[in-house]
Amino acid sequence: MPNIEEHSRISLARTGKDYAEIHEWIDKDPLTKVERHDITKIHEYGQMMLNRYGSEGLQEYLQHIHDDLLARFGHVKEDLEKSVQDTLAYFGVTARPSKALPSEYETLLADLELLRQAGVGPDDVIHCQRVCRKALEIASKINKPVNYDLIARGGLLHDLGKAKGRADDHGYVGAEIGRSMGIPSEILRIMETHVKAGLTPKEASEAGIPEKDYTPETLEEKIVVYADKLVDIIYSPDQVVSSETEAETRFTEILTAHPNLAKSKEAAQRQIRNHLEIQFMINSI
Ligand SMILES: [Fe+2]
Ligand SMILES: [Fe+2]
């Protein structure tokens, strides 16, 4: 810990005065030294310092206690940090440079750029961002383990196919584009299964895409389907709701009453089933 001379030097550098009297009063007498460092006495001694030396003297008294604590424990903090770093390095974990973004944000920014580069229009990109946010919000309310990375990327990329297709084929088209870019298969499945809450083989055939069952199966696929439809309702030009919550509470009624949002009767039934399943999960403890 700093001795009286060092404390005085620090005060001199800080204020232009050495306040040696204060530092001597605190440190010099071994019989009172411990008591004069007691932080429970700060109010009493602080008042005395204020009366004798003014607010600057009071500050130097407080700084003395502070500098002692720093000298005593500062190295503990440094040793601990060094020890943690050494341990992490031993296991091959190295700290990221502080200016770098966390990798998940870098991935999402790259996905956003990928949408634009692929030719997805600005309005559709905004829609994709909204679905990404909504899907994460829904996921956070479900009391089950979910893959947030998958939900975020799947929500953001689900309409990649709108770069080329617009109708019922855009999920399949998006997955084809994504596959050529090396996007993971779980995200391709989210793209393929989101259209109309999962096309049947017959509907797929009518859409001119491979005839298979596109039903969403994983929780992540179902959440993106739900988020996509909620965003459609919330931002509908017909202004069918006045709040995001209302889109959930009136979901069934809205899809029944608005064929343009439902797309088809079959799709509406699948959307409502998916909505009920997710709401059940949200409301289960
Ligand atoms: Fe879509
Ligand atoms: Fe969408």
Strand percentage lies at under 5%
Count of DSSP-assigned helices: 15
Give the class from helix and strand content and strand pairing. mainly alpha
Q: What order do the helices and strands follow?
A: HHHHHHHHHHHHHHH
CATH architecture of the largest domain: Orthogonal Bundle
- Tertiary shape: elongated
Sheet with the most strands, sense and barrel status: none
Q: How many discrete domains?
A: 2
**Radius of gyration of CA atoms, rounded to a whole number:** 32 Å
* Mean pLDDT reading: 91
| E-strand count | 0
Helix percentage range: over 70%
Under the CATH scheme, which class of the largest domain?
Answer: Mainly Alpha
Which spans of ≥5 residues are poorly predicted at pLDDT below 50?
A: none
Q: What distance separates the N and C termini?
A: 55 Å
> Under CATH, the topology of the largest domain is which?
Hypothetical protein af1432
Give the bound compounds: fe (ii) ion
Structure description:
With 285 residues, the chain is mainly α. It folds into two domains: 4-90; 103-283, Hypothetical protein af1432 (Orthogonal Bundle). The protein has helices spanning 4-15, 20-27, 30-36, 42-90, 103-118, 122-141, 148-157, 170-180, 185-194, 201-207, 219-234, 244-249, 251-257, 259-262, 265-283. Helix 6 packs antiparallel against helix 7 (148-157), helix 6 (122-141) packs across helix 11 and helix 11 crosses helix 15. The longest helix has 49 residues, at 42-90. The radius of gyration is 32 Å and the shape is elongated. It starts with a helix and ends with a helix. The mean pLDDT is 91. One fe (ii) ion (FE2) binds at residues 158-159, 170, 194-195.
